Amino acid sequence: MFAYLRLEVRRTLRDPGYVISAVAMPVLMFLLFTNVGGDDADAWKTQTMIGMAAYGALGAAMNTGTGVAEDKSVGWLRQLRVTPMTPREVVAGRALNGSVTVLPSIAAVFVAGGLVNGVRMDAWQWAAAALLLWLGSLPFTFLGLGNGYRLTAQSTGVVNIACNLGLSVLGGLWFPITQFPDWLRTVADYTPTHRFADLGVAVTEHEAPGLVTVTVLLCWLLAFGSYAVVSYRRAARTA
Question: What would the pLDDT profile of 162-189 be if each residue is shown by its tens digit?
Fold first, then answer.
């Protein structure tokens, strides 16, 4: 399984689409939002940094599903079925691949925040925020995997982009949910992306993530994980 993981990580990191969408784009958006007509307050830049790091991690996590759909279309899934790996190991390897490839997205935005925008936090805050965002990205990896196993390669790309943009905007990764109407703010409170970003925001405020945040994310992890398993079983039967 770990040989399979190394192979998939190398393939992902060499993909120009991944570099542009999951690493370069969040950094550019972060610098744009905080330096062109934005608020110069340190708190605003720190919160925006967390939001854009979460956005990049979301895109990287879901990009794993696009790779799955492409592999399925060329028969790679059938080849994996005749290897000694069990279905659980195949899904776990892909999930670990998604977890590894979110790290460059988070790191790139954090580096831009510290070196370009002058964001200042204690060393433990940088480390804790990165760790929590890394762990919190797992539900989105499973969502991308579920789409990849269930849909065609072309459809997966479209659906993943729609999920990425929709969840990012609704979850307040681009704009604070305090600017939303009351009814939309209530909906946003229970989105996985809002609670995902809240993991990092809590650390910047010298607090631990709240119980509601952790509970909501665990519920979404269970839902998306179940979706990925069901989609894989369906794909295995029809591949």
Answer: 999 999 999 999 988 988 999 999 999 9
Contact 198, 213 (CB under 8 A): yes
Residue 205 φ then ψ, to 5°: -100, 15
Measured CA angle at 30 (ends 94, 37), to 5 deg: 160
* 36 CB-contact burial (10 Å; exposed 0-12 / middle 13-18 / buried 19+): exposed
Cα Rg of the chain (Å, integer): 18
Instruction: Enter the tokens of residue 57.
Output: 């991690």
Kindly state the tokens that stand for 196: 């995902």
Give the separation between CA 212 and CA 23, rounded to whole angstroms. 29
**pLDDT tens-digit series, residues 14-50:** 777 778 888 899 999 999 888 865 555 788 899 999 9
The conformation of residue 102, written as its DSSP 8-state character, comes to T
Q: Which residues contact 97 (CB under 8 A, 6 or more apart)?
A: 5, 8, 9, 12, 64
The alpha carbon of residue 49 and the mean position of all alpha carbons in its chain are separated, in whole angstroms, by 15
Q: How far apart are CA 29 and CA 55, in angstroms?
A: 10
**Distance from C-alpha of 225 to C-alpha of 212, rounded to nearest angstrom:** 20
